């Protein structure tokens, strides 16, 4: 029962002690209305007894993640306190009776207490965390790597032919270079031989 929050010194406390707990203080005492809502939000208490009007306004306009359960119970009357022999007392009585009969009192209650100004569902955060960005980058790298592998696999025949032509061309260039060098050496030997023959002839 100590998970039920009740404001101390209120009609709610009197009702709870009289009708429910038989005079036992087996509830969580609250000192203010603000403490009531803070305790609910913090998980200190599970439920709280409150005036219907105040609770309706709070959950529809301020504390959007709280709600009212069940129907109102232990309905009581409210009164407006004024100084004795107040000269406007009769005018106030007539005014209240007039707006009640015209339906304006219900309209005011609907406007200020029952109109829900909170969104049905709190908006989800669209911020991207560092971990999410890192995960996206890693996914992009993996997909890119797989795409490159698939491309190489589908083009493997063309790549093989290209490599074969490249190797053959390189071998051809090497052979041509070697052949040119050999011819150059042979020509050099012929020139040297011719020079020797010329020297021999000139000696005669």
Describe this entry's structure for a reader:
The chain starts with a strand and ends with a helix. The chain folds into two domains: 111 residues, Periplasmic binding protein-like II (D-Maltodextrin-Binding Protein, domain 2, 3-Layer(aba) Sandwich); 74 residues. It contains seven helices and three strands; from the N terminus they run βαβαβααααα. The chain has 204 residues and is mainly α. Strands 2-1-3 form a three-stranded parallel sheet, with helices on both faces. The protein is rod-shaped, with a radius of gyration of 49 Å. α3 packs across α5.
Could you list some keywords that capture this structure?
single chain, 204 residues, mainly alpha, D-Maltodextrin-Binding Protein, domain 2, 2 domains, three-stranded parallel beta sheet, 7 helices, 3 strands, rod-shaped
Brief account:
The chain is mainly alpha-helical.
